[in-house]
Design goal:
The chain is α/β, with parallel strands linked by helices. It folds into two domains: 103 residues, no CATH class; 204 residues, Alpha/Beta hydrolase fold, catalytic domain (Rossmann fold). Helix content is 43%, strand content 13%. The chain has 14 helices and ten strands. Strands 6-5-7-8-9-10 form a six-stranded parallel beta sheet, with helices on both faces. Strands 1-4-2-3 form a four-stranded antiparallel beta sheet. The chain is elongated.
């Protein structure tokens, strides 16, 4: 039986309830009698459902042996004797050793979020960063500082590589200072990172700079990202630079497909996803370029069991049965001469517009001076 067949036989609601239990990580054992109502079945059908789920691999089915008198669990070797090694009662006097079936979830313990760095995109002040910081502070029962990194409102400088490197170097310097400050305040763990748009490009530029090889990161959330879909995350993880990456894609993100034509070294990963096996790609059909930072969506993603909450705090296996998880096709950038031609055209157009604007405002300024001169002599 497959998971699809499990849904067909027992219904999507029951399977989704089980997956939610797994994702929560709050319990490792299911009692069929106590949990029957949560799956919408009677106890007997719940056992059949859990047996089938064990066959699929969602739960683990174990048989345990118990003394009918204690009734404590005993080892198989102890069950072969006449007396219980714990209470010394004879098994035969109570009807023999009891056999019980135990269902255990394949869950992993939760992970603490040490601290977080958030980096915004270009042509924006990153207002979402404050909302994220406030909700992260209210979400956790312990202190997890949030470093809001702002590199200023930029527009035209995203078109040139040397400016990328310069800004990535500034980012690395700021992060290194923050890491040292965190360690001085007894937070030795590497920070998690939330990236948006051009901020994601600065982050991978930083990872490529040997001068910042000492910087280590935890889990990385990339939303509205313009990193190339074929980026080698596995290499970075094997180098110990980061722990895991989550790409939150939006089907209605119309901005990123054009990034490769205007911003050198970028690609449409927010629409395409990452082809690297190490990346977790989740697609939201209704998301635009910054929809995940809308207040309602931000709250849902950070809520207990939300996508970002699960990525930051749970084991990646909690995404194994996520319906929005996808594996992208192979991506290749547009032919380099075409990209270069478009970029040169855009730069030339901006230069013409800048020259026109300069001439226009200069003429207005000179006209104003002339008018003042006439007025003063009149």
């Amino acid at each position: 039986m497959t998971e699809a067949e499990l849904r067909s036989v027992f219904g999507a609601a029951a399977v989704n309830a089980l997956l939610a239990r797994i994702a929560s990580g709050e319990t490792t054992e299911i009692d069929p009698r106590l949990s029957a109502a949560s799956f919408g079945f009677e106890e007997e059908k719940t056992r059949t459902f859990l047996d089938s789920a064990a066959y699929v691999g969602l739960v683990e089915r174990r048989e345990t042996l118990h003394c009918p008198a204690c009734p404590e669990a005993i080892e198989a070797t102890a069950a072969e004797s006449e007396l219980c090694p714990l209470c010394k009662e004879a098994f035969a006097d109570r009807g023999g050793v009891e056999r019980r079936v135990v269902y255990r979830l394949r869950v992993h313990g939760t992970r603490d979020i040490p601290w977080v760095i958030v980096i915004h995109g270009f042509n924006t002040h990153g207002e979402w960063q404050q909302d994220f910081s406030w909700r992260m502070g209210n979400k956790l029962k312990y202190s997890a500082p949030v470093l809001i990194y702002k590199y200023g409102l930029i527009r035209f400088s995203v078109l040139v590589r040397w400016r990328h490197r310069q800004m990535a170097r500034q980012l690395g310097t700021a992060i290194r200072a923050a890491v040292e400050h965190a360690k001085a305040n007894r937070i030795p763990e590497s920070p998690d990172v939330v990236l948006h748009s051009f901020g994601s490009q600065l982050f991978v530029q930083l990872l490529a700079m040997p001068e910042f090889d000492d910087l280590r990161f935890g889990r990385v959330i990339a939303a509205g990202t313009v990193i190339r879909p074929n980026y080698d995350w596995t290499e970075r993880i094997s180098q110990g630079r980061l722990e895991a990456v989550f790409c939150h894609c939006g089907r209605k993100d119309w901005a990123v497909p054009f990034a490769q034509y205007f911003i050198p070294g970028t690609g449409p990963s927010a629409r395409w996803g990452f082809s690297d096996e190490a990346a977790i790609n989740v697609m939201n059909e209704d998301y635009g370029h910054g929809s995940c930072f809308d207040l309602k969506e931000l709250e849902a993603n950070l809520a207990a069991g939300g996508l970002w909450d699960r990525f930051l705090r749970r084991h990646r296996s909690t995404f194994d049965n996520e319906p929005r998880l996808f594996k992208p096709a192979t991506w290749r950038p547009m032919w380099k001469p075409i990209r270069g031609f478009v970029r040169i055209g855009v730069v030339a157009l901006m230069a013409v517009l800048a020259a026109f604007a300069l001439t226009f405002f200069s003429s207005i300024w000179l006209t104003g001076i002339d008018c003042l001169g006439i007025a003063s002599t009149g």
